[in-house]
Amino acid sequence: MRRDTQRARVYKSDSALIAIAKPLPTVKDVERFTRRLLQMKRVKEAFPRSARYDVPNVGDGRGRSRACGGEWEIKIPLWARNEAVVTHELAHTVALREFGRRGDAAFHGWQFCSVYLKLTLYGMGREAHDVLKAAFKVNRVKFTAPRAKRQLTDEQRQALADRLALGRLAAASERRALAA
Q1: pLDDT above 90 covers what percent of the chain?
Q2: Residue 94 domain boundaries
């Protein structure tokens, strides 16, 4: 798994959703929310691999200071029982099921963030989605696939190398002229 370089920025962006999020006071409410969200037709179409599995088990998070989401279970302590935190942890579940624990997917990487944005849209609505997306942009959180790098032909690579060599020669002769 890749290094989780944007974790702090994602958590900072999460705080923008707290004011909008509705409370989910009991574990049953959290289970109902997760089941409703994961059984939506739009979610199943967007995440077909994840749709093959059951809804993750919801633990009450007793004795935990943080909420956590895994492939098969999410744990939600009392303070975290609201739509925003549950959606974040559920996004971990869906992202792990969709992308696995491959070496190119960080725990809070762009793949997770794209899942998180979609689940926020489907579960909390357009306003929450737009607020989270704006927070991602302000905090420079990556949530789309990186652009593919341009592939150079051998001729293009050689032409660039020749230009670089000419530039270095010109700089060296200029330094010699200034030194004389």
Answers
A1: 44
A2: 7-138
